[in-house]
Write a structure and sequence with these properties.
Order of helices and strands: HEEHEHEEEEEEEEEEEE
CATH class: Mainly Beta
Number of helices: 3
Helix content: 10-25%
Mean pLDDT: 89
Radius of gyration: 19 Å
Strand order of the largest sheet: 1-6-7-13-12
Low-confidence stretches: 1-16, 251-257
Largest sheet: 5 strands, antiparallel
Structural class: alpha+beta
CATH topology: Immunoglobulin-like
CATH architecture: Sandwich
Oligomer: single chain
Length: 257
């Protein structure tokens, strides 16, 4: 009896561990908040702290999804930001081009694809207006594969959509020894450690689906990990819907490749 009971408990634990983590938006738009920042920029730490404070806000993941992209164009000032990549810099330049500008800057906040300045008098909370756009869901299996589904509120769109999945890191600390922030220890939350993109395809019916593997992280020293997922029209930057949630640190641990 005890052996059978123990076996049953182990099987229950195994089945529970195999259940995918599921994150889902409502039909109202969840705001994607992007911060472009750098450890080499003296103006960035207050913006980093503000974004990190969203971890304690009740609307996290349900009303807004924060992500922090580190750019590398300040590396020449003497401190190389280990969290930065050229692809994140290229993403900010793509936004600048879409806004009719050839220049970029940090800290740069973007909300739902538009410039936003929450530190200089922007009104309202981070969620902003929420139009009815459709439901985005993402299931993350223990194999690290994300299975995404988006059902537009208006039914099948003339064009298809693209899913973007970012692996996020939190509780990251960097002791800066050179450049404009020399002598400071900088903390970061919601840092994009990698991003994967894939076109969604439509089955018969209104839903669009795709499976995409979580990207490999560019840094391993994280206390918390999460994912952020959002959909755009194929080839466009502005998000239509977003969702996300904790993978570890504030939720059951998940093996990350």
């Amino acid at each position: 009896m005890r052996i059978h009971l123990a076996t049953g408990l182990l099987l229950a634990v195994a089945l529970h561990a195999a259940e995918p983590l599921r994150f889902e938006s409502g039909s109202s738009q969840v705001a994607l908040i992007e911060l472009y920042t750098s450890e080499g920029c003296s103006s960035c730490p207050p913006a980093d702290r503000w974004l990190g404070s969203l971890r304690d806000k009740p609307g996290l993941w349900k009303e807004f999804v924060p992500v922090e992209f580190h750019v590398n164009y300040w590396d020449s000032l003497g401190w190389k930001d280990r969290l930065s990549t050229g692809s994140f810099t290229a993403r900010e330049y793509a936004y600048a081009s879409a806004w009719g500008s050839g220049s970029v800057y940090t800290p740069c906040f973007v909300r739902n694809g538009a410039p936003w300045r929450p530190l200089t008098g922007a009104t309202g909370g981070p969620g902003g207006p929420a139009a009815i756009v459709g439901v985005l869901s993402v299931e993350v299996g223990d194999d690290g594969v994300c299975r995404a589904e988006f059902t537009p509120a208006a039914g099948p769109a003339p064009g298809l959509h693209e899913i973007h999945v970012a692996l996020l890191g939190g509780g990251i600390a960097s002791r800066v020894t050179a450049g404009e922030n020399r002598g400071q220890t900088l903390g970061h939350e919601f840092v994009v450690l990698g991003i994967a993109n894939k076109d969604l395809f439509r089955d018969p019916g209104p839903a669009e689906r795709a499976a995409v593997a979580l990207p490999r992280p560019i840094a391993a020293d994280t206390v918390r990990r999460a994912i952020a997922a959002w959909v755009t029209l194929q080839g466009e930057l502005a998000p239509i819907q977003a969702t996300g949630g904790w993978l570890s640190g504030s939720a059951p641990a998940l093996p990350i490749p």
